[in-house]
Every structure is written in C-alpha cells, then in structure tokens.
What does this fold into?
Amino acid sequence: MIKLIVYLAIIVAIVWFSVTVKLGTKTLVEHVRAIWHTSEVQDLKHGVEDKAGPTVDKLERGAKAGYKEMVGSDVDAGVPDAAR
It folds into this structure.
C-alpha cells in the first residue's frame, strides 16, 4: 500500500512539473506540443500512416472476421464437449 502511495505521489509530481514549471519560455507540455505540430513530425506521422495503413487494415479485417466467427458459432470455444 505504501508503494502505491509513493508511486502515485511521484506521478502527481511529474505531472505538476510538466504542466507548471517553465523550461525557458515554455513548460514541458508546451514544448512537446510545439514539437508535435512541426512539419517534420507531421511528415513522419503521415509516412507511418502510409506504411502501416495496409497492415492495420488487414489486422482490423482479421479481428472482425474472427469476432463474427466467434459470435456466429454455436460451439463454445475452449469448452470440451463433455462440459456442454
């Protein structure tokens, strides 16, 4: 229980520091936000979306097909026939 309280206090301290303490002219959160909105990062995001897009689509289709198979099936997955 003490560990949890210590960890929560550390997390709260980090969040407080990130939001309130100025590092030059901006806080840590403002610096990260400014970096995130640069054109280089936007190009990087679009490049990752272009390269990973087909893989993500394939995984989504597979997950949806697996879910349809599971929901539409009368057989309970993982339950032996004797237990039914």
About this structure: Helices lie at 2-20, 28-36, 39-72. The radius of gyration is 24 Å. The longest strand covers residues 22-23.
